[in-house]
Write the structure tokens for this entry.
Amino acid sequence: MSETANYTLKIRRYDPESGETAFWHEYGVDIAPERSVLDGILYARDHEDASIGIRCSCRAAICGSCGVRINGKSALACNTRISDAQAKAGRGKPIVVEPMGNMPVLKDLIVDMDAVHWKKIQRVVPWLLPDGEPPEREYIVPAESMIDVTQSMACIQCGVCVSACLSLEVDPEFVGPAALAKAYRFVGDPRDGQTEERLRDLAEDPHGIYDCTHCFACVEVCPKDVAPMDQIMRLRRRATSDHEIKDKNNGYGHEKAFVDMIETWGTLHEAQMLPRSFGDGSLIRGQTEPGAVKQLVEALPTAMRGLKSGKVAPKKLLFHPKLPDQGNVKKIYKEIESRDERIELNLYIVGDNASDEEGAMAEGSEEGLA
């Protein structure tokens, strides 16, 4: 039997019925180092204070009930070893446990998932919308057709990514990483008949797929490697590359401008990034649209600040140096664009061996370009 060790949990307590503000309380727990933070919380509840509130069920990172923040990082309490949490807290310091962020606190470590997480899941219509009459029996698709959505299907709806999302902190109306990962589960499903409609809805929503700031927080904390930000980027590629949805949020224009600049110069032409992002991504044609003109006028203060700081100058606007080996960059574009379809490398399914195959493919491509 493993030897036990003494740990101190500093738990944020809050009881709305008491009328008092939230406060911190420390509890000493005596459990084995390989046990979880959840075990430590339950130990404190069993041995010191039975009123500690925490949701939990499976204790095996399956149900997703015990999401909290441990030392400031969102995680499942059952999936975090208490010895690891102590190491991150530092020797002699308490392990800080508090409720998840971006959601109202109901009591102690229990948050209102209905108010935020589940409300946003409902926003993306989380069920199949097939076209035509239903089949006589079940919908049957080849297994390989479902590979693309298997990663998003692994989500256990724990809300940890929602807790960690920095975009949600700034914009509480953002659809959020969990809901958008769920959206891709149906966008990528070959049985769904509303793919373009789903994508257009999320592209036109100012709080939709273009509200993500690529902070990688959701990728870092996800206990099931769903990588919600990856699913958001897939939604964007589907919307822009596959369906060419020219949204009012300028997601299409921004992506096209970025891609075209790298193909032309090899580096980002920052002086043209803002104007090119409006409309269709071009420097002149897209700016003639009424909506683009309005947005350009509204962006004038930003441009003026760029001129004042020296980041943007008339010369930089007109002239931008190309990379010395820009021809090789163009060859990469030509190689990719010559393919009939875009290949999504899903490491979640194919595993690490795919890196060897990808390397072999890359070598073959380089030989062909030489």
Remarks:
- The first strand starts at residue 5 and ends at 13.
- The domain at 5-111 is CATH 3.10.20.30 (Ubiquitin-like (UB roll)).
